[in-house]
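pipeline/complex-builder :: batch 7 item 3
reading input block
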Amino acid sequence: MSRVHDMGGRYGDGRVKPDPEDGPVFERDWHARALAVTLAAGALGQWSLDTSRHARERLSPKDYTRFSYYEKWMAGLANLLVANGVVSRDELAGGPPEPSPLSARRLPADRVAGVLASGGPSLREGPEPRFQPGARVRTRKPAGNAQVPGGHTRLPGYAAGAVGTVILRHGCHVLPDANAHGFGEQPEPLYTVVFDAADLWSQPERAGDEVTCDLWESYLEPAS
Amino acid sequence: MPHDHHDHDDDHALLPPDPALRVKALETLLTRKGLIDPAALDEIIETYAHKVGPRNGAQVVAKAWSDPAFKERLLDDATSVCADLGFYGRQGEHLVAVENTAEQHNIVVCTLCSCYPWPLLGIPPGWYKSDAYRARVVREPRAVLADFGVQLPDGQAVRVWDSTAEIRYLVVPQRPEGTDGLDEAALADLVTRDSMIGCGLANTP
């Protein structure tokens, strides 16, 4: 059911290699350009953050695995640009660029600070939450988008079918499972649910350690 | 039922294979089509290379260490408290601060991608976005901490926050011993980026 990006709990990745605290923010110049091109292209308003995340997730497992972080961003962006008709395959292949009607939406340098500072909150008006803090809940199993096979979701595979406890409520937020696929925002109550490590892993590292996930109401059902 | 694919999933393969050339090709194409302004790209890079980074978060932590009432408000509603200090924006619209105590150590990850509180910590370091960190820290946080040279006392439980929504987490590390006389600026100097993710501890004076 899951895609390659859903890697929480996976074995075999080796040790984590910390970067120095004072290391450069961008290891290579092209990393910085990749981030900036992605943000500037996003400002054209042709797709949501959820859609662009899904564009990276749905790279083929082979590409996702061999690409470095910002290469995934570039591949996802190229696919999004074509899928949304912003650029053509001919242009992407190096053909002569045609003028675009979207150029009126170009992000100018003097608006960058304002756009970055204002962000894009996902909090919305919506239904009252069904679960109280302290409620025991069971997550959807299998994890996956309920409407689109292989679609976007924020329920990690490792937490599918697990029972946990609601510890925080965050109001209603845009449902990424819908928004990533152009079905509208469909806001739902969002919760932080805490799981005992022993309910997630066959050999938990230490009894009493915990993992939390932020989960939308439609991922959850009451558990007693 | 809607489909989740289209005819050309590998459109990106039309770009040059070398990553630096890929970025250059996309930037050039979008610039020539009038869709991006290269000066705007410079401005975005300048923002995250020099203006928005972990010193922001360190100020918040130092203030929480110094002022119990501020800490209480931060733990209750980090979004508005941080916004009052000028720390708000993209990838940090909804913030939650979690406090490390003698009983509980908190660590943040995004197993599905790379979610991170940009207005407080800037752009995440390479290891935060690595497969090894994303895959392992939810299952074996103590082994991952050992990769950072951190060993927790036996009595301290670990809670790993997998940031799967737009909620972004800031860890408030434990205040180090021997810092009673220090002012906020001196305290902020002890707060490391990794300590605010939960993969390190604050420095001692």
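note: The radius of gyration of chain B is 20 Å.
queue -> next item
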